[in-house]
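Before a colleague's protein record goes any further, I have to sign it off. I want your independent view on whether this chain really folds as the tokens say. The record follows directly below this note.
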Amino acid sequence: MERLRDIDLFSELTDEDLEEIKGMLRIKRVKKGSIILYEKDTNRVMYIVLSGKVKVTQVTEDGKEIILAIHTSGEFFGEVSLIDKKTVPATVEAMEDSTVALITEEDFNELLRNFKFTMSLLKIFSRRLREAWRKIYMLNLKNATDRMKVLFLTLMTRHGKPQENGMLLDIPLTHQEIADMAGLSRETVTRVIDRWKKEDLIRVLRRGVILLREDFFRLEIP
């Protein structure tokens, strides 16, 4: 119940609502590197990440993986396909050992009868749409540094935590994962991060978590 209350999608619901939802959930534990959802299954169930981290990816014709989104504890995916009954051309993979909860199409349709649930869903859809606009803008920037600025600021809207000396981007990321999201090479990402570290604009903490220093937000954003 406490875990469900921490999920934005359910945060406005009553204890009675949450008890009903708890009975709908089917819990699945997955190992790092396991495929949680294939394209052909994306219109059958909705997944909620209870713990861990997963990525939503597509593979280009030349075999390059593109990360469309990263979901951490409390986030969910697969709901759009339950609404329009279409599959999504993407695969969902566990980036670390994770626990997810499954909701079937039938139960999801029942939840849509709850006004508070539906309003929370619409608010999250709106946030994701704005993030998608930001990502399209980012990918059209030619300068690698500008792309990474916009990427970090976009990630901060969902994963940022205020600190005394800046904002913590509280999602562990490797240089390769950043590169896959920004459409850059890993070497370019490493070069930009090393420069920002020398200029004390960012600090890389444990497990790849990044602290954006106050001066980072004074950088000119295109």
Q: What stands out?
A: The chain has eight helices and twelve strands. The radius of gyration is 18 Å. Residues 84 and 97 are 30 Å apart (CA to CA).
